[in-house]
């Protein structure tokens, strides 16, 4: 837990975490690592339709059979510990907004990611749009508790898919000067957003610093699809950061037990974290192992369940043993409206992430309906709660350089 946190904040986190802290469970953590090593060695990870990834893993000692590569977990840990930074600086257009991510730093909070639907302040329900997206970015900028404006806060359903990465980039750069997350629609989109963001930040590349953090998901069980693999490679080679995550549904895409989910998720993220270091030693990474019980009767995850919080505490400790920053989830819920269920479930998940020492907390505001909806009302309430941990107001963003804005608009028009 960072020493910079206020005394009362540390006391609250200690109170929440006291019953769960796994630091003393050395035998349990070693058992998870050994079991994940066995999964990697005997079952392997499936890397779909990406010969480059399979070739580089074979050169690193992996044994490939078709698109399945069996790996040495201990060697993957050595690669990660040797090269991956324990802390890095995520830069914004405004240097005053730069945020450290990792060891000793307070958690970074970012809003919901990927919601197709929106509930407006008046209760009306709409599909996401370009206009609404800009309003959500502006709300994230104005919220002192949110130190990152995220990515794909809602889906721009009124914009063609090939234009969305640049439209979202323009919204993040013009409506805020905080750091934000990168785009993974395709390797080409990721690289375009990286290059244009670097031009907007207008500071030379520096060791231990980057401009964007990208969400790279494994697909449980034990699979990586081609687009995340190719994006991971492009991002690492550019020196930008990746948040390599396994997001499991316990009993559906992972074992139903906490221990089983941790073993599978750890095996999946070890492969992705090591790949980033193989492509570019020192590439910034964040590790995420997240698992939620899956209700087979309703065919829906149960967000807020205590089992997921136990997964978070052990995942955080596994990340610290690797020496990398750790991801947590924010105020996520299965509730359909912003009610007592929403507050109770979201509060439990967010508290577990904070108390576990998570470095980057995604979905920190706005989440409803298993993530299918972003609510303006809940967005504001979650952000207001987070603001109590920091400063009360945010100044307006610095103006975006006109040449950068013109270049982005020109590319959008060509698309």
Describe the structure in your own words:
- With 415 residues, the chain is an alpha/beta fold.
- Helix content is 44%, strand content 17%.
- The chain has helices at 7-17, 26-43, 51-59, 73-83, 130-142, 164-175, 187-201, 226-237, 258-279, 306-322, 340-356, 376-387, 402-414; strands spanning 45-47, 63-65, 68-70, 87-90, 99-102, 108-109, 117-119, 125-127, 180-181, 209-210, 212-217, 223-224, 241-250, 285-295, 300-301, 327-329, 360-362, 367-368, 373-375.
- A hairpin with a 4-residue loop joins β18 and β19 (373-375).
- α2 packs across α9 (258-279), α4 (73-83) packs across α9 (258-279) and α9 (258-279) packs parallel to α10 (306-322).
- The longest helix is centred in the middle third of the chain and has 22 residues, at 258-279.
- It is globular.
How many strand elements? Answer: 19
- Helices, by number, come to 13
Low-confidence stretches: none
> Which percent range fits the helix content?
40-55%
- Tell me the major beta sheet: 5 strands, mixed
Q: If you compute it from the alpha carbons, what radius of gyration comes out, rounded to the nearest whole angstrom?
A: 20 Å
Mean model confidence by pLDDT: 94
How far do the termini sit from each other? Answer: 46 Å
The coarse overall form would be globular
Q: Helices and strands: which structural class?
A: alpha/beta
Strand order of the largest sheet: 9-11-13-14-15
Residues in β-strands, percent: 15-25%
